[in-house]
Amino acid sequence: MKTIQLFTCGFLALTLTNCQDESVDTSTMDDYNSMANKTLKMSEKMKGHSVYVSSNNSGKLSVFDIQESLEMPSMKSLSLPYMDADGVEYDVNRDAIYQVNRSDKALVTLSHISQTMDGDEIMPTAMGPSTFENGRGSALYNNKVVVVDDVTPGKLVSYHVNEDVISDFRQYNVGFEVWDVHVNGKDLWAIEDVSSNLVYFKDFHNAKSGDLMYSAKVSIEGLIRTHGLDYDAMTDTMVLTDIGSAAVPDDGALVIINEFSNKFMAAMDSGIIPMEDQIRIEGDMTELGNPVDVAVSPAKQAIFVAERAQQKLLIFEMPVSSGNYAPMYSTSVPGASSVTIDF
Ligand SMILES: [Ca+2]
Ligand SMILES: [Ca+2]
Predict the structure, then answer these.
(1) What is the pLDDT of residues 90-129, one digit of tens each?
(2) Measured in angstroms, how far is the CA atom of residue 196 from the centroid of ligand 1?
(3) Residue ranges of the domains in the chain?
(4) How far is the CA of 191 from the centre of ligand 1 (A)?
(5) pTM attached to this predicted model
(6) Which end of the chain is less packed: N or C, by CB atoms within 10 Å?
(7) Among 15, 113, 136, 82, which residue's Cα sits nearest to residue 342?
(8) Domain 2-341, architecture per CATH
(9) Ligand 2 centre from 135 Cα, in Å?
(10) CA angle (182, 244, 140) in 5-degree steps
(11) How sure is the predictor about 4, in pLDDT bands with cuts at 50, 70 and 90?
């Protein structure tokens, strides 16, 4: 009974979009509230129009500007002093990128990102401790970044982050292999690698280091192997990628779940989110093979995909029904491994 009440509370948190004002950590509540308000105002004012794509083999960060057009963005390519990168997060308050540098097994900060020009070689302004082995997806929350360590069994590693310093915060053992995570309010969503499972951790925000038990795990019907996820709290929309078989370069799909909170709540009884609750983009027009990461923008009615098998950034119009849709934009990004947006 207690568990069920916790879940209900969790879903309130989920739908109210911002429950961070209950947070503890080291700040006092007043500090935290005023910081959250300031952050919200700054975020509104500084809403950008860039899409950032990591590569795990090129040593480049690709930045696409969609201000003029989603179908024809302009692009700049930044050179990094490491070849293999994954999770990428944009910090609007610092104009900084936090990126999982897999070559050196460390999270790094790339500062003044909006001032960079095409072809620039950029050096990290901060580098974290090497406390993960096999970094994958990441999520930014409350001046921290949580990085997935895709080891067996899986781990999550959190860091305090800013322009100058990245330091250890907490480490968690989740007991299963993880690929990507998303933080919403105080809660965290993860996808289990080599499965169709979506996993919910209520109140991740306050969890102490050590073993972290999930609150719920549900299967997404029809999905073979999920990798990336993104959730928009304003519209309650969850988007998941399906890479199908990792060895097959043209069997990928995207899964969009509208009214996600209610559907997930129902799935906690049944254990499954059925096909009829999903919209699927799949087929030969889609260019989807191994979509490893995704970002969703309901404001732009668009879904941004890091497509690893085809080595591309793909932009899809937000669909209202399932179908074999061509992307509205498709361009080569060698080694595309992760994507984020600043709007
Ligand atoms: Ca595939
Ligand atoms: Ca992601």
Answers:
(1) 999 999 999 999 999 999 999 999 999 999 999 999 999 9
(2) 14
(3) 2-341
(4) 17
(5) 0.88
(6) N
(7) 113
(8) 6 Propeller (2.120)
(9) 12
(10) 15
(11) very low
